[in-house]
Design goal:
Among the domains are: 65 residues, 2-Layer Sandwich (wza like fold); 78 residues, Ubiquitin-like (UB roll); 69 residues, Outer membrane lipoprotein wza domain like (Outer membrane lipoprotein wza fold like), CATH 3.10.560.10. The chain has 9 helices and 20 strands. It has a 5-stranded mixed beta sheet. A 5-stranded mixed beta sheet has the order 12-11-15-13-14, with no helix packed on it. A hairpin with a 3-residue loop joins strand 3 and strand 4. It starts with a helix and ends in a 6-residue tail after the last helix.
């Protein structure tokens, strides 16, 4: 019995070893989060792209992840598509046929059929019509088995312009995402798709992100050039402040409304209090505007201008001073200064609680006291206690004394 159990354990160990060897031989899967790491260098990205291209070639014999059933009226056939030609009846035949580089299907007893550039439904009708003569007493079908791969070029205002491997079921937005997404200077409302036959299509990425209408997000074809243009700079630049992720300088269009601008840079969210969005305009005597809260305004008619500073309500509160963990903390409604100081590990000994100060970003004013209600973007500062300040001086006194004694011994002071 002991021998049998030992043999069983050895067999299981051998099975695990075989599985590990097979896994090592399999192509490594490349995940999109790895592809879009912010700290990835261009060399590393190119290496990942080459690995992904090799992986796509090896997937010819595997099932692809599709959105749904391939639409025969919209799918355009091209070189590399693999079909299954089937004959049922007196003659039984099942034959894989591939569209050649010249765009032809070569089928026994039928010959060459031009299919490149035609829809899948048109190819089916053409093949069945030609086959009915050669296989008069049989039923003929032709099905698309494997989708072809081709190259698409993505250029312009994307993080990593270049050439990418795609399929006829891939859409424009997917290729832009694979190129690292658009930059802050991208004019996403008029992305151009140039086809090899001279046709041109245009795609509004912002509108698609809002509506989710796939009919606007067209399929790519072999040799397409996706051009993400730059925003015309005749409108000038504005600065966005307050939000850590969105802060920066942005180009604007002429007469662009603030609502359109905030939608374009994806600054609006359910958590944002839009009534607290502020525009500072120094060109007109340092004027201050609240486009979404002023009487008679809803933001839809407020036009931003060159040089404006758009201050967004932050979703964080910043704590500094005599705390163990200074930094940004998520805003929560109705919390007080002492609550945020406690989160940051504030030292409340020796009565320094009363010295907490809150700097209100929205009004530019400051308040003192632990019970001050904190708003988004505010800065909470905990002053060190008298004992903490004295302890600093006490710790440096021995060092200063040692320096004086050393200087005296070296003769820097007179006898």
């Amino acid at each position: 019995m002991i021998f049998i159990l030992g043999a069983s354990v050895q067999a299981q160990t051998q099975d695990r070893t075989d599985i590990q060897k097979k896994q090592k031989r399999l192509p490594k899967s490349i995940e999109f989060p790895d592809l879009f790491k912010q700290d990835m260098s261009k060399k590393e990205l190119d290496e990942l792209k080459r690995e992904r291209e090799a992986r796509l070639r090896e997937r010819f014999s595997q099932i692809d992840a599709l959105e749904g059933v391939v639409d025969p009226d919209n799918y355009i056939v091209g070189p590399g598509d693999v079909f299954s030609f089937n004959v049922w009846g007196g003659i039984e035949l099942q034959l894989p046929v591939t569209v050649s580089a010249g765009g032809k299907l070569s089928i026994p007893s039928i010959g060459d059929i031009d299919v490149a550039g035609e829809s899948l439904s048109s190819v089916r009708e053409k093949v069945i019509s030609r086959a009915s003569e050669a296989y008069a007493n049989s039923r003929v079908t032709i099905t698309l088995e494997r989708l072809r791969f081709f190259r698409v070029h993505v250029v312009g205002e994307v993080r990593y312009p270049g050439t990418f491997i795609a399929q006829a079921v891939d859409r424009v937005s997917g290729l832009i995402q694979e190129a690292g997404g658009v930059t802050e200077w991208a004019w996403t409302g008029k992305i151009e798709i140039r086809h090899v036959d001279g046709r041109r299509d245009f795609f509004d990425l912002d509108r698609f992100n809002q509506s989710g209408d796939l009919r606007e997000n067209i399929y790519v074809t072999g040799g397409d050039i996706i051009v993400v243009p730059q925003i015309p700079l005749d409108g000038g630049l504005v600065r966005v402040e307050g939000d850590l992720e969105l802060s920066g300088i942005y180009p604007i269009f002429n007469n662009e409304k603030i609502l359109d601008f905030l939608t374009r840079i994806r600054a609006l969210s359910r958590k944002m209090e839009i009534t607290k969005i502020m525009v500072l305009r120094s060109a007109e005597g340092a004027q201050k505007f609240f486009p979404f809260s002023e009487r008679g305004r809803n933001g839809s008619d407020f036009i931003i201008k060159k040089g404006d500073r758009i201050v967004l309500p932050s979703q964080y509160v910043y704590v500094k001073g005599a705390v163990q963990r200074p930094g940004a903390y998520p805003y929560a409604m109705n919390l007080k200064a002492i609550d945020y100081a406690g989160m940051a590990g504030g030292d409340f000994r020796s009565g320094n609680v009363k010295s907490i100060k809150v700097y209100h970003v929205r009004t530019g004013e400051s308040q003192k006291g632990p019970d001050v209600v904190v708003e988004p973007g505010d800065v909470v500062h905990l002053n060190p206690s008298l004992w903490q300040r004295l302890s600093v001086y006490i710790t440096i006194i021995p060092t200063i004394t040692s320096l004086i004694l050393a200087a005296k011994a070296a003769g820097f002071f007179g006898k």
